[in-house]
Every structure is written in C-alpha cells, then in structure tokens.
Amino acid sequence: MRKALGKAKVDETLIGFLLDLTNVSLLVLVVIAALSTLGMKITSFVAILGAATLAIGLALQSNLSNLGAGVLIMFLRSFKLNHFVEVAGVSGTIKKI
Asked: Where do the domains of the chain lie?
C-alpha cells in the first residue's frame, strides 16, 4: 500500500496516517472475526464497542475537532515539511506534521 501511495505522489505524512488507520481497522475486524469463529456472540460486543466509541467521542470532542483539522491540513496540503511559515508573529520551518 505504501508503494502504491508513493507512486501516486501522496504526501508521506498522509501515507503514514492512512497506513495506521488501515492497520487499526483491520485489527478490529480480525478480533471480531476471531471471536465469532470461537462461537462468541458478537452482536453485544459490537454494541458495547459502539457505545464506548460514542462516549469517548463525546468526551474528547474538542480534541477530535483538532484531529479533524489536522487531517484536513494533510489532505488539502496547505502545509508541507520544510515550508517556512509565520503564525501569530512566530516564524519557523515545519519539521513534523
């Protein structure tokens, strides 16, 4: 996947984010499939997982909005590594996104 995204000239930061997101999603699906194969009823597990996700999302609402803004910055490519920026009177070079 990294190779294909690299050929498509996707930003390296975005590649890392997408790979991490894919990794976690696949891990959750594999755990649910393994529990189902072992004979465990997963409907209640998925309901509890959904409720926990909702509770965590509401508790971390402001942090998640910052995360969303960061993802938009990566997708829109308004800032890149080694760009010189000036924000609120402070200037510098972007070293890590």
From this structure: 2-93
